[in-house]
Design goal:
heterodimer; A: mainly beta; B: 115 residues; five-stranded antiparallel β-sheet
Chain lengths: 114, 115
């Protein structure tokens, strides 16, 4: 399977714990995006990388959130001191350079904060 | 603030009929409008896009119509099949405050295809 993969698919954690998610984009895609999606809503943009550079961050991305893409390939999204409001599906997408409209999404990581 | 939204949260159609999913937008500065499909347990999947200077664009069994006068976007699916059952999102491509572009998604319409 050469699509976007995310790990883990599900994560249950207690409030106050730190969690880290991984995204492996399609190999030739240099753009990588993170979104958050809650039930019944469309994905909300969080942040975007072009190669290893983080070029854009949403105001939704509080100081507790950090994302990295150290070698321009896979990316990690870390949430520190999780809160119940962080419970959501975290989606990763990738696209080719210059292609913003057609983004290829992974299956997402569903986070539940107890 | 400016947003992308949908008229109806759910739509049920008979298999073989045509489906029309509507979307209203308020940001006149959007360069592209895009439709995505999301099946249960999966990430969204690109269907089709339309540039803001176009009125109509056709794909395989799908047609997107853009009415800039009333800021309305629609997705027409011909001969709807059971595999079309999913949530459909419209999205707009807008240049953010920096140089990057980002997609802003609406809240989705659940399409159910009845046998």
């Amino acid at each position: 399977d050469t699509g976007v993969s995310q790990d883990p698919r599900h994560k249950i954690t207690k409030r106050g714990q730190n969690v880290t998610f991984r995204c492996d984009p399609i190999s030739e895609h240099n753009r990588l995006y993170w979104y958050r999606q809650t039930l019944g809503q469309g994905p909300e943009f969080l942040t975007y990388f072009q190669n290893e550079a983080q070029l854009e961050k949403s105001r939704l991305l509080s100081d507790r959130f950090s994302a990295e893409r150290p070698k321009g390939s896979f990316s990690t999204l870390e949430i520190q001191r999780t809160e119940q409001g962080d419970s959501a599906m975290y989606l990763c997408a990738s696209s080719l350079r210059g292609q913003y409209n057609e983004q290829f999404f992974g299956p997402g990581t569903r986070l539940t904060v107890l | 603030g400016e947003s992308v939204g949908l008229h109806l949260p759910t739509l049920s159609v008979q298999e073989g009929d045509n489906s029309i999913i509507n979307c209203a937008y308020s940001n006149s500065a959007s360069d592209y409008f895009i439709w995505y499909k999301q099946e249960s347990g999966k990430g969204p999947q690109f269907i089709i896009d339309i540039r803001s200077n176009m009125d109509k664009r056709q794909g395989q069994r799908v047609t997107v119509l853009l009415n800039k006068t009333v800021k309305h976007l629609s997705l027409q699916i011909a001969a709807t099949q059971p595999g079309d059952s999913a949530v459909y999102f419209c999205a707009e491509n807008i240049r953010s405050s920096g140089s990057a572009r980002q997609l802003t998604f609406g809240s989705g319409t659940q399409l159910t295809v009845l046998p």
